[in-house]
Write a structure and sequence with these properties.
Structural class: alpha+beta
Number of strands: 20
Largest sheet: 6 strands, antiparallel, barrel
Radius of gyration: 30 Å
Organism: Jiella avicenniae
Protein name: DNA polymerase Y family protein
Pfam families: DUF6504, IMS_C
Number of helices: 13
Shape: globular
InterPro entries: DNA/RNA_pol_sf, DNA_pol_Y-fam_little_finger, DUF6504, SulA_CellDiv_inhibitor
Strand content: 25-35%
Keywords: DNA damage
Length: about 525
């Protein structure tokens, strides 16, 4: 089932300017060097008037709004940053943001007006932990970049657009097959109508989409034209609205049109193989290998079915890429037939010829890249990783996830004290019986099971990293390796030195299990 994500950037033009000035922590630097946040508005021309066309959160908090006369805005706020509206620069920046989403989240992404991005999330949400997790990730990443965003997912572009602007705080997940009822409380402006049409509807007493749905369609079409009824039908799913995917200017593309629509999996696979040959030939001419490949199948009803595959390293092997794509053919719903197939190398990197075997005596090292690609495209790239050491004495900070085939980092774990085979995601509290300050516990209870300690080694004292947080200036942990009567071995620690409360809570925790 098709699901559409709408990203709404309520203060995008002003966010863009603040990023240009000083990054996510926006502000102007006066002569004395201090950074001061001032309300920011963009001024443009509406017919013969100078009006506010965009305002950031600070400006809106002081009563400024879009459409307000420029003279009134500057008079209302004494200290106000005023910039000229640059629609071309805004459109270019919004397209760059859409391309960023295209590369990381879904193969079907487009710009939605002047303040939004629309994404067809079918087949992509499970790779990011589900729809809610994907929306939170999108909004969070935009926030890190200093851009305010709200997001909603629904069955149609029109519904997602409306909910992102009038229902998301900051995210909203509409249930599948939600129908028109979810849109009825929303204002008429949510239907992507012109400002003149919205104002005319309000003058006639129509304030919500529900008011319009209870009105005969013929008078509405006669008074406001076909645009109003079309927007209503698109929002509730009675009329299709294809998303024309954005495509990077430098991307390598291979496409094929069909005189007769195709739909059988075998036919799709045959033509897919021919497209891969064409694409790889062009990649070879440019000395590139593909890292992310999108297959876009345009159906006769103007809907696009998309398949995305990724590789751990740059690849232009025809057989390998064809297998990866053919494994995903079952996810394509051809409907009444596919009339065009397009293969896009969304992400490509340099790939130079390599010498695989220098002599007859060289050892042939196994190449697991193909296996990694197959698994990653089935379970998701982010779920396939390996662990790498990080220079830190604090156990939970001494490890990080890296891609399976990433080069060695050059770091190594310390070997003077053994570490458990399994480190818990978070230390878990345990009940203990121990003599303070230096003795290990005689017994402990973990997850409801009491264990008597037969042998113990320690303590190993680990100090807090005071240069990261002030709270760790005097914090310590005392770690012990303990063996229970049944032979199980655990890694436990006491928070604190056993005497001074400023060093820790003096509570005990279990942090890992030895093999």
């Amino acid at each position: 089932m098709r699901r559409v994500v709408s990203l709404f950037l309520p203060t995008f033009p002003t966010d863009r300017l603040r990023r240009l000035w000083s990054g996510p922590a926006a502000g102007r630097a006066p002569e004395n060097g201090a950074t001061v946040d001032l309300p920011l508005v963009l001024l443009g021309r509406e017919k013969n008037r100078r009006v506010v066309v965009a305002a950031d959160g600070l400006a809106r908090g002081q009563g400024l709004r879009v459409g307000m006369a420029a003279a009134r805005a500057t008079a209302a706020v004494a200290e106000l940053d005023v910039e000229e509206h640059d629609p071309a620069a805004d459109a270019e920046a919004l397209e760059r943001l859409a391309l960023w989403v295209l590369e990381r989240f879904s193969p079907i992404v487009a710009v939605d007006g002047t303040d939004g991005i629309v994404v067809d999330s079918k087949g992509a949400d499970h790779l990011h932990g589900g729809e809610a997790a994907m929306l939170k990730s999108l909004v969070g990443r935009f926030a890190v970049a200093g851009i305010s965003a709200r997001a909603a997912v629904a069955d149609t572009w029109g519904a997602a657009h409306a909910l992102a602007r009038h229902g998301a705080e900051p995210v909203f997940v509409a249930p599948p097959k939600h129908g028109a009822a979810i849109l009825k409380p929303l204002p008429v402006e949510a239907l992507r109508l012109s400002s003149e049409t919205s104002e005319a509807l309000r003058d006639l007493g129509f304030s919500t989409i529900g008011d319009l749905s209870n009105t005969p369609r013929a008078p509405l079409a006669l008074r406001f034209g076909e645009a109003l009824t079309r927007r209503i039908d698109q929002a509730v799913g009675r009329r299709s609205e294809p998303i024309e995917p954005l495509r990077p200017a430098e991307s390598i593309v291979a496409s094929r049109n069909f005189a007769e629509p195709i739909g059988a999996a075998e036919t799709i696979a045959r033509h897919l193989g021919k497209l891969v040959v064409t694409l790889c030939a062009e990649l070879e001419e440019k000395g590139l290998g593909v890292r992310r490949l999108d297959l876009l199948c345009r159906r006769v009803d103007d809907r696009i079915e998309a398949v995305r595959v990724s590789t751990a390293r740059p690849v232009r092997d025809v057989g390998r890429l064809t297998r990866l794509l053919c494994d995903r053919i079952e996810t394509i719903a051809p409907g009444f037939g596919i009339e065009k197939m397009t293969l896009v190398a969304t992400l490509a990197e340099p790939l130079a010829p390599t010498q695989k075997l220098a002599s007859l005596t060289d050892e042939i090292l196994p190449d697991v890249a193909s296996l990694v690609d197959v698994i990653a495209n089935r379970v998701g790239e982010e779920r396939l990783y390996r662990l790498a050491p990080v220079e830190s004495d604090v156990p939970e900070r001494s490890v990080r996830r890296i891609p399976p085939l990433a080069p060695e980092t050059g770091e190594s774990w310390r070997r003077d004290w053994p570490r458990p085979a399994r480190l818990l995601r978070r230390p878990e509290p345990i009940e203990t019986l121990a003599l303070l300050p230096d003795h290990p516990p005689a017994s402990f209870t973990w997850r409801g099971v009491r264990r008597r300690v037969r042998a113990a080694d320690g303590p190993e004292r680990i100090f807090g990293e005071w240069w990261k947080r002030d709270e760790e200036l005097s914090a310590v942990r005392d770690y012990f390796q303990v063996e229970a009567e049944d032979g199980e071995r655990f890694w436990i620690f006491r928070s604190g030195d056993g005497e001074a409360m400023e060093t820790g809570s003096q509570r005990w925790f279990l942090h890992g299990l030895f093999g």
